[in-house]
Every structure is written in structure tokens, then in C-alpha cells.
Fold each of these.
Amino acid sequence: MYSKTIPTGFPKGFLWGGATAANQIEGAWNIDGKGLTTAEVVQKAQDRQNIENMNVISKETVATAIADTTDDLYPKRRGIDFYHHYKEDIKLFAEMGFKAFRLSIAWARIFPKGDETTPNEAGLKFYDDVFAECHKYGIEPVVTISHYEMPLNLTLTNNGWASRATIADFTRYTEVLFKRYKGIVKYWMTFNEINASTWGFMGTGALDSDLDVPGQTQLRYQALHHEFVASAIAVKQCHEIDPAAKIGCMLARMQTYANTPNPADVRAAQLQDQLNLFFTDVQVRGEYPEYMNRFFAENGVTLQMESGDEALLQEGKVDYLGFSYYMSTVTAADDNVEKASGNLNFGGKNPYLETSDWGWQIDPTGLRITLNEFWDRYRVPLFIVENGLGALDEVSADGKIHDDYRIDYLRQHIQQMKEAVKDGVDLMGYTMWGPIDLISASTSEMSKRYGFIYVDQDDEGNGTLKRSRKDSFAWYQKVIASNGEDL
Ligand code: BGP
């Protein structure tokens, strides 16, 4: 008789927590020897071009923004001043019962220009202190090594990841991190949303962002190849230096549906999915999948690989798959379909789904589908390292923030996660995005808020930076205390 038990809920030791990124929280952009980063010029470039989509920033505007390095009011330079508030913030995370806190290290704090041989001790010391503060409360740091930024100097000298030379700069940085934080950081991730590197500047750090310029597809996939190699080397280093640590990849996942049951739409959605899962195919399975050969041939891409690269990709397979999940998309074979509106929407409108204030199509069931698909395809532990609702919060007359909409969003997603666990998916943890309000990656605004903790600061940088608990704070505390039973 075949008899196996179905899990009843989240496993013991499930990593509940929240996720952030250095350039969206830290501030202190020029303090203690830190160098300027690419993230700190993106917003300026967007402002100058007056556009919403960061992926179409032109080369010229990025260059102008880079030339002006004096302004410290830009959102990704001021963050929420976590640099000086980390003790208070981590204490609040601990009060919610966090088991894990995902944060990124600002590469330019460790190597201000990226190409030095000796790291900046003050930068390393800052993260020593942050990790110590986490451990004081039994919180595991989950560290992204590169979250949408790099030392700006590497963009100016190497054109970011477009150059193979950046691999050596990166691996010098990662070696320093693994040695310094051996036994201190148990969970690492190499690149945040690595698929963003085929979208433009934020991912590649290369001045290639105008898609109308010929050769962009070539440049982006070549830059991405360099990131794959750098990631594989980092995985190997991590395993050699600290065999007890786990290191994963990180993908921006949008579950993709066919617009109709018309096989042409289904095939279009399948291709869309392949182009999205290509990244995890390389990083989890350790090789380029065959379907990309055809894509490269049809899109004029000829990858420059060195002998040994393919072996490295095999040796540098990740231990787990981390991913962000905010929404799903719809793909049709032709353009004759109503497009979803809002920022960062790539596909068609799904009439069955509601949207966030920014038009992101909210789809909790899609998360369950994604989890099942990932588990079927990869058989490595999964980690939801971002999920959340960006919303315009209002301070009520009673001085509080009653964010029931956020609770609803998170509750529905956690419910579907639980279903996936019962389906048999191996899920390690859940770090929702932005446990404390922070600067938005895509809009660089403060008013797109995700947090359980409100931060008194407006889009222009006015405010006391005072932290206060929203209604969702007590709710998440209860969720964690009951290991996801009391939703
Ligand atoms: C992901 C990024 C994060 C983040 C989040 C929410 O793409 O990894 O850095 O900010 O999305 O996006 P946004 O800030 O644009 O609302």
C-alpha cells in the first residue's frame, strides 16, 4: 500500500521575516569611506528624462546624472537612514518575532571604487555590527551580495557587467565577504532578480539602456553571462570557505498565463516562461538550456564564452532558489489584447484579478502554481524572499495606520504558500518585502509603502524618520508566533 503523510503546515524552523536592500534603506551614501553606486544615479537619470520606466533611460541622461555627484537628497542616497537606525529597526523586527532578516551589502561600502585590492574596514565593520544585532535576537541574516547596484566606478571604467573584467572585481569582493562572515551569515544570495539584467541598467550597471540602440540584446545577454560566471565562482568560494553556509540565486518571478486556450497563445506563454526560467535553469541546473540556442540565433546573440565557463556553471550550482513574487502576467500570441496598466507591467490584463495602486495584478493562487512548478522543475529548496503590497498609507485621525488591505494581501499569499507546502513543496522561508517602509526600487518614491513599520518621511525627504507600528505589525507577529496557523 502506498501511504505517505501530507504536511499539515509550515515546517519547524521556517524562516519567517522581511527583506530589504541597502540602496533602499541605508542612506549615509558618502559616509565612512563608501563610494557612489549605480543605484544612486538611476533616480537622477529618470528625473532628467521625466520617465517612469527605468529600463528606457538613455545613455545620455545616465551620463549627465553620473557627472553630478553632489546631491544627497535623492531618495536612494538618503534611504530611511537605516545606517543610523539599525538597532531600533532590528529591535522592532525582533518584536514581531522575525527568524530571518534579508538585507543586501552595498558593494561600494566594502570596495568604494570596486577595483581596489584592500577592502574598506569601516564598511565591513558596519555589517559586523548589523549581523551582531540580528544574532542578539536570534535572527538569521539572509544576505544578497548584489542588489541592483555596483560601485559606480565600475560602470565608468568597465561599463559594468558588459565587461568580463568585472568578474574579477566581484570575486575579490565575495571572497572578502565569505571569509569575514564565515559562521555569521548562513544564507547568501548572489544577484537580486538576476533576470533584471536583460531589462537594463539596474541589473547590468552598463550604459546600454536604450533598447533602440542596435546590439542591446547582445550586450545584455553577454553581461548576464558574466554575472552567471561570477555567481558560479561565488558559489564555489562560499562552499569552500564556509561549507555550512547555503547560497542561492534570486529570480523575479511573474507566473505567466496564456491569454486564451488557443494553442498559439499557450505556446506564446510557454516561450515567455522559458525566457524567464532560463536564469534559474542556468543557476540551478548548471547549464544553458537548449531553447536559448534558438533564441540567441534568432536574436543575433553570439555569446563570448571562455573555455572553462561551462564547467564553472556546473560546479557553481546553487543550494536553493530564492525568488520574488508580486503578481502574474498574461501572454498572447498577437498584440490584439488589452494591456495591463501600471508600472512594470509586461503583459496583458487578467480580468479575474484585482490590481494594486500601481497596477500590479494581485494573484495569490499564482504563487501556489509557481511554487509547484519550481519544485517540479528544480527539486531544490525554495525561498520566497520578496512578496508584498506597495500602497499609499494614510495616517488616520487616531494617529495610526489601519492597513487592512496589506493584511489581506499577505494573508492570501501565505494561505496559498501553505497549500503549496501541503502539495509537497520544499519551502524554507518567507521574507516579505519591505517590513519597514523604504524607498521604492522602481519609482524611487517613499510613498509606495510596504511596511509593517511606518517611517515618517515624504517623497521629498521631509519628515522626522520616526518609526511607528501599523495594524499589520501585530498581525504578522501573530502569524509568526503561530508558525503560519493564525492568519
Ligand atoms: C523587487 C526588488 C526590490 C523592490 C521590490 C518592490 O523588484 O527586488 O528591490 O523594491 O521589487 O518594487 P518597488 O519598490 O518598485 O515597488
Amino acid sequence: MSEVVGGIFTSHVPGIGGAITKGLQHDPYWKPFFDGFGPIHAFLQREKPDVAVVFYNDHGLNFFLDKMPTFAVGAAPDYRHEDEGWGIAFDRPMPGYPDLSWHIIESIVNDEFDPVTCQTMTVDHAVAVPFELAWPDGDFPVKLVPVAINTVQHPLPSPKRCYDLGKAVGRALESWDRDEKIVIFGTGGLSHQLEGGRAGHINVDYDKFCLRNLAPDPEALLQHDTLDIVELAGSQGVEILNWIAARGALRGSVRELASNYHVPISNTAAATVLLENREKVRA
Ligand code: DHB
Ligand code: FE
């Protein structure tokens, strides 16, 4: 029987990759962010998940503005990291899991979602940076199922649609009958805007609202529509949609084990949250 053991939520600022490459984890600028991963390393040591399902947004690598799916699920045997630069030297293979990808796709299509299915797929910093943060040494011990959400080209999906997608993925995982442990990732955020007159925009109040409610009351995050979130959190802060979807996939009793918030990393309010998911007894 499969088990969803928890959720890891983290910013994916590409500069974090540069800091890892240069070994700057203890540098005063970076330390407050990297310190947030201590509890996550302990959790992963303890739980030893077999699979990671990652809700993230592609930034123009695998999809560009000419073809932008609202939702896409990877079903590739492996995923190459081909990020845009920043001195990141990550070339570790990310093994895929086509059997589980197709199980998820079958199940969510049956639930009336219409994802693009990707049998070849590259991933950018939004997957690679969280993986490097979670498993800094050796090979990645998990098989990856990437779920891409359009947070880039409007119109973007609503927070409720993303939450419902996450719930549908969570139901698919509950019906996966291999004896495997699964960890969910939601990447991106928190508030940030990289361009235009509001470049550097950060909204501590909105970020704290999201962090406060993520575990106990995720539906509170649905009260703002997508354009409200752009206004509140910035044009890239809307990456919180990935967190909302990931939280939807945790369908058991959810408890916060760790939370870290540090402003700024690059132009971003950086946050890391670890949620434990204790499954309710299945019918
Ligand atoms: C930054 C943050 C992001 O989420 C991203 O995708 C690119 C850059 C930044 O703060 O530099
Ligand atoms: Fe981003």
C-alpha cells in the first residue's frame, strides 16, 4: 500500500543553485535560508520516500509562451536539468516513473482534468533547486513525477482549480497499490516580482497569512483569486499556486513540523515549510 508521508514547500530561486555550486551554505547571506532544511533532511532520513511528486512552474525551458499548457504531467523515463545558467553545475540524473505518471494521468483525466502528457521533458530550477536542497549528497533516492502549473502566461488557473488538481492527484496516489512512500513538493514563492515598476515587491503580511494557514486551513488561501494574488504577492509571487496544489495532495491529518521565512533571497521572500501527512484509515 502506498503512503503519502508529507509535503515539502520551498522557494526555488535559481541563485540558490549558484550558492550550492559555490558552497556558500554557511555564508551569512545564505545561512538563514539553508538552515531551514535541517528538519527536512531529518524527515527524509527517517521516512526515506521512494517517490517525489513535484508541483512547480516551468519558466520557459520546457514550455515557452508559444505553447503553454495550464497543467502538464511528466511521464518520461528521466528528466534532464537544463536550467538557464547562474553557474549551477547540477547534472545529476532525475529518474522518472512512467508507471506512476500514467496512473496519475488516468486518474485525474477520469476526474475531468485535461493535462498535457509529456513523455520527454526537461526541468528547470523549479525542480532542480528543491531536489538539490532536499538531497545534497549522492544520487537522488526518489523517482520523480513532475506536475507543471502555468503561473507564467495569463490567463492562469484559479487557486481553487489548483487546489482541486492537487486533491485529484492525492486521490490518484491513494489508489496506487505499490508499497511505496511518496513525498509531495510545492515549489516557488513566496512574494516576489522580478520586473517592471514593482520589481522587488515583497508582502510580508500576505506571506505570513499563507504560512499561517497552509497546514490548518488551506482553503483560506482560496479567498483571493489569481489576479488578487498577483496584486498581493507580485507577478511571480503567484507561484504560491504550486504550494496550493501541493497542499491539496495531502489528504490525511496534516501537521506542520517546520517553517522558515527569510527576506530577501535575491528578489524573493524565501520560505521553507515541512508538513507531515498522517493518512486517515482508508475505506
Ligand atoms: C527569482 C525567483 C524565482 O522564483 C525565479 O523563478 C527566478 C528568479 C529571484 O528571486 O531571483
Ligand atoms: Fe520561479
